Amino acid sequence: MKQDNKLKAILGNLDVIVAAVVLAILIVLTFAGVPFRYVFNKPFTWLEEVQLACMVWIVFAAAGAAFRAGNQVAIEMVVDMLPKKMQKMVEIFISVVVVAVLGYLMYQSFGYLEIFIRSGRSTPMLKIPYVVIYGIAPVSYVLMVISYFYALVTGVKSEAKEAMEE
């Protein structure tokens, strides 16, 4: 039973784990690059390419977690001032808009990935295919939608709302 819960926890937070690992790689390489550049006069010529890939992966991997935790950007003050019935209607409208925007972005990301696949474009130094760097985008959009609805169903509140209730 404990093993099952542990597996669920790992799978449920896989996006956070990926973002954390990539962030650790980014930090280690960036800090290592400083002495190699300024002390040993041997800069990592490829470091900028890896940093770009890491930043993209961190942002997209962590985006679903932000939705799941209720930490996405939102201006709740205006909605909170409305009557309860109107708040519910606005929340439904916001949900439709969020899903529509994420769906549109996912659709567009497939177009960009198709361009990268057809052109075979890759980074200049390490020859990392851009489809590998940006391939996380469509997966991330799906996870964002799932996480958004998970937060709605479970009643996750933003940190600002939680602070006001205390």
Note down, in words, how this protein is organized.
The chain has 166 residues and is mainly α. The protein has one domain (2-165). Helix content is 79%, strand content 0%. The protein has helices spanning 2-12, 14-38, 47-69, 76-80, 84-119, 130-134, 136-154, 159-165. It starts with a helix and ends with a helix. The mean pLDDT is 85.
Strand content: under 5%
Largest sheet: none
Q: Write down the domain tally.
A: 1
Task: Please report the distance between the alpha carbons of the first and last residues.
Answer: 35 Å
Helix content: over 70%
What is the general shape?
A: elongated
How do you describe this structure in short?
This protein is an all-alpha fold.
Q: What layout of secondary structure does this protein have?
A:
Elements: H1 2-12, H2 14-38, H3 47-69, H4 76-80, H5 84-119, H6 130-134, H7 136-154, H8 159-165
Helix pairs in contact: 2-3, 3-7, 5-7
Features:
166 residues; mainly alpha; 8 helices; elongated
